[in-house]
Every structure is written in structure tokens, then in C-alpha cells.
Amino acid sequence: MAHNDIICKPTLDTFIRFGIVLAAFLGFGMYFFYDAAIGYRKANEVYYSYHAFAMLGDKATSIFNAADWETERHNTPLIETRLENEEPVAADNEHIYPLPPDCEATRTCPPEACDFNAMAKSWNDCWLAYTARMRYPSQPTEHAYDAAAIREQWYAGGVCMGISAVLLFLMIRTARRVMALHDDSITAAGQTFRIADITRLDVRQWGKGFKGVAYATVNGRKIRLDGMTYGGFDPKKGEPAEAFMQALQARYKGEILEYEET
Description:
The protein has helices spanning about 10-60, 65-75, 115-135, 145-175, 240-250, and strands spanning about 5-10, 80-85, 90, 95-100, 180, 185-190, 190-195, 200, 215-220, 220-225, 255. The protein is an alpha+beta fold. It has 2 domains: about 15-160, no CATH class; about 175-255, no CATH class. Strands 1-5-6-7 form a 4-stranded antiparallel sheet, covered by helices on one side. The longest helix has about 50 residues, at about 10-60.
């Protein structure tokens, strides 16, 4: 490397920004995938279980002996399920509501719903005991989630993961690039060109108010010179990007676009 060469590497702040956005999209993607695969199905199970407990509680208050209650609860499954494509689901006339794979066990009433006196006294207390044992939320969702809602979660998760892949690609590409000045040539935006090939240098966005973005027009194409990403303007490091631009302007003899100071 020649003594007058200037090499601006990607700044740490650039990777921190990339990392924050990447982590956010990865987090959202995993959250959507979790809801699609587990969360919404569990919510459906809690939703239908809760309303079944409420229905059984109403029946318990209208029955006057335990024998009739035994017959009634045996004929009332906690969740009415049927198989749809070999998957346990609840269904109405228009929608299918997927349930967890192990939801077959809820065809019969759980122990908390078997005590006639307890259900007649307070079915809600029985429900709280059931959710505590199953480690379910005691408050159900306002509505069940049908198959279309679950598909939307898969789609949303896929979009977030796709954006994450693009961000990761950009992050790796940025890490492998530099903005450099070698005698009469420049390396920027993954391209190398001669200073003499620049027909216009636009530095209107390079000032302190914009922090380091310029454009070099080469063969009719604008090439971005990004001082915020490469080099940076940290005074403790000697403002590498500003040193790059000052050296470039000292060697460049063509047209320069810049705002006039007033």
C-alpha cells in the first residue's frame, strides 16, 4: 500500500445498525412461525375448553342429582373435534379451527370438570384449577383462529425471514467491501474506476448536516461514496471518510456540485 493511499473500512456502527434490524426481523419471523405452528392452535384449545366449561357449569346448575350429571358430562366432550386431513380440528359450517395434535385427549371431560358439586358451585374455580394444571392462560382469546389466520402467520413469518436473508446478504457484502483511494483510482460500491473517468462529483449531501454521502458520475452512472458506512467521521479516528473526500477533491479536476455557503 502506497503512503498516500486511503482505505476506509466498514464502521462498527454500520454493523450495529444491521444487527439491530436483522434481530428485529428474525424475532418477528420466529414469533409468527411460533403462532402458526403452536400459539394459535393452543389458543384455540383454550378458547373451546373455556366455553365448554361454561356450558357444563350451566348444565350443572340445572341438574339436581349427581347421577344425571354423570350421564350428561359423559355425553358432553370438552371440545367437539373431528379429523380434517388427519389433523384434529374444531369446525363450524364455514371455518376450520386447527387444534394441537394432542388435543384428542380432550374429547372427554378432565378431572376438574367431573365433580358435580364443585361445577354447580363455581365452574370458574374448576376452570382455574384446570388451567393451572395444564399451564394454560386462564383468560381465553376473544375468538378462535381459523386455518386462514394461521396461514397468514406462516406468510408473515416467511416475509420476515426473506427480509432477514436479504439483510444478512447486505451485511456480508458490506463487510467484504471498502472505500479506498489508490493514487489515481477509486474503489467504492464494489467497483474500481479512475479519478480521470469521473465526469461529475456531487458532494451536496456530504456536509456535516447530511453526514457523508456523495455521488461520482462515471460513464453516465452514479456511484455512491458512502462515508457513513465506510470510514466514518469519528474525530478520535481522524475522520477517515473526510480524509478520503479531501484527498479525492485535491486530485479531481472536474465538475463538483456543492451547496454554496451563505
